[in-house]
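hey so i finally got around to running the thing on that chain from the lab meeting. sorry it took forever, my laptop kept dying and i had to restart like 3 times. anyway pasting the input first so we r on the same page abt which one it is
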Amino acid sequence: MITTKTTDKIILGIDPGTTIMGYGLIHIKGNKMELIVMGVLRLDKIDDHALKLHKIFNRTVSLIDEFKPDELAIEAPFFGKNVQSMLKLGRAQGVAIAGALSRDIPIQEYSPKKIKQSITGNGNASKEQVSAMLKTLLQFKETPEFLDATDGLAAAVCHYFQAKKGPSQKSYTGWKAFLAENPGKRA
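ok and heres what got predicted. didnt touch it at all, straight out
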């Protein structure tokens, strides 16, 4: 569910994980996007999976209580080689969503490919490429120690771009499709 456009809102983006959860918050003022904060929740020293989930829930709620976001954008788990890993990621995503729901925050889920496509124009972009583009878009200098932070931030920025696009605007699969429908735009 992409909510209606407003000129002033805060979006929380989360990259769920049971080892590291990345997050980023942006403030939208008119057509301007500003970085509020990004960071990670490190869970690598915790062995108990249920305790990790509890910490994810609590951190999500504390971010919501502190920054008062209007919306949550979260990366969807993807199927890799290990079914168990996907199940754990799904649980991590679920408790982050539950944290947002406990505070009545609307949620939108995006695939990793959609997020990368939205930020870089390439659905197969690397974490480094996503981070570099976010540095340009949001004008921050330091690359975070863990790129999970920029992955969480990317979910928030993707959500803003998708809402900005709106239901009436066209979406293209690449330059070829754009030029086919807009022949007058050729250089």
